[in-house]
Write a structure and sequence with these properties.
The chain is of the alpha/beta class. Helices cover about 40% and strands about 20% of the residues.
Length: about 220
């Protein structure tokens, strides 16, 4: 993040070493759960041997770790949190596929020109962390050669109320980080404009999963 000193971006502050360690411990104990598990299964459906993965805002790396174990060849993880990159890299070492993952620290939109297209692109709970949804979704969708999967907040009164309370707490705690609710119709329209077709939807009370595919030429 150009506005902040190294290790002091809004994402670094929100998703710090303590937060990353807790999420890594949960992943190691329970594996991916809920819509994260559903996202991984949807991306991997039908076999993904030799496929490439782009995991944007990958957190501890659950998505790319599981896809690599399912047959994907290589992965790129772009995350604005240095703490998350550190634990994702450590987990890749532990699982034995560190040499197949490239890690990039920073804002994906700013780094997009440095990232190659991938067969499978995932954004798990990332859209709701980004104000400029159109740039994030547009730049990432154009890089998806086969499948594009996202998990993000539903645009409902429950989601909006939750975000309102979270952002109030963040302001009171003087955190620069903010959460956002973006319209499903807007996300769908941007993805469709980049040639992808929605194939799957799943919803919980707060979250939603959408999987899109690029039709064969």
């Amino acid at each position: 993040m150009d506005c902040c000193s190294p290790g002091d971006s809004p994402f670094d502050r929100q998703f710090n070493a303590r937060h990353a360690a807790e999420k890594l411990r949960s992943y190691r104990q329970k594996g991916p759960a809920g819509l994260t598990r559903a996202l991984i299964e949807a991306l991997a459906a039908g076999g993904i041997d030799g496929h490439t993965v782009l995991d944007i805002g990958g957190g501890v790396g659950a998505v790319h770790h599981e896809l690599l174990r399912s047959g994907a060849a290589t992965a790129v993880d772009v995350d604005a949190s240095r703490a998350y990159i550190a634990v994702a890299r450590d987990e890749a070492e532990r699982q034995g596929h560190a040499e197949r993952v490239r890690y990039l620290v920073g804002d994906f939109v700013a780094l997009a020109d440095e990232v190659d297209p991938a067969d499978l692109v995932a954004l798990d709970r990332v859209i709701c962390c980004y104000a400029d949804m159109a740039s994030l979704v547009g730049r990432s969708a154009t890089l998806a050669r086969r499948r594009y999967g996202v998990v993000y907040l539903r645009d409902t009164w429950v989601g909006r109320l939750g975000v309102m309370f979270e952002n109030t707490w963040l302001r009171l705690s003087r955190s620069p980080f903010r959460a956002y609710v973006h319209r499903t119709e807007d996300v769908d329209a941007i993805v469709a404009a980049h040639g992808l077709v929605k194939r799957l939807e799943q919803r919980t009370l707060i979250w939603q999963l959408a999987l899109y595919e690029r039709p064969a030429a």
